[in-house]
Amino acid sequence: MSLYQSNINHVFDDFIKDLNVARRGGTRSGRGNNTYFAPLIDVHENDKEFLVNAELPGLNKDQINIDVRDNALIISGETKKDQKYEKGKTLIQERSYGSFTRSISLPPNVKAEDITAKFEDGLLELKLPKSAPTGKKITIE
């Protein structure tokens, strides 16, 4: 058997395994029943601010909550399965549904009261302005 034929066989074997696992109500990815996910994020820093981008495809801004508590930025919300698929059987389900929460520790130089958020095309963009450095020189007696 050629390498090409072997690769094709693996593709079809994996497809059949996915179908069989899905029919039993499980997943091959180890994510259980797909009721939880954590949004993927990027955090960038420049001289003036921190920028946090979170991928939240398929949501609208009313499904997303953003809070600052105990020096942490918390992004949470819930995704719901489309009602049009309630009849019949789902053969493969890789998308996640349910509640999600993502928490990021904030550095001490963030002006929490000035954080802004924008949501467009499934991407949440947060701007976390930096405060002026604080501190005190201690003199030794």
From TrEMBL:
<keyword id="KW-0346">Stress response</keyword>
<protein>
    <submittedName>
        <fullName>Hsp42p</fullName>
    </submittedName>
</protein>
<dbReference type="InterPro" id="IPR031107">
    <property type="entry name" value="Small_HSP"/>
</dbReference>
<dbReference type="InterPro" id="IPR002068">
    <property type="entry name" value="A-crystallin/Hsp20_dom"/>
</dbReference>
<feature type="domain" description="SHSP">
    <location>
        <begin position="31"/>
        <end position="141"/>
    </location>
</feature>
<comment type="similarity">
    <text>Belongs to the small heat shock protein (HSP20) family.</text>
</comment>
<dbReference type="Pfam" id="PF00011">
    <property type="entry name" value="HSP20"/>
</dbReference>
<dbReference type="InterPro" id="IPR008978">
    <property type="entry name" value="HSP20-like_chaperone"/>
</dbReference>
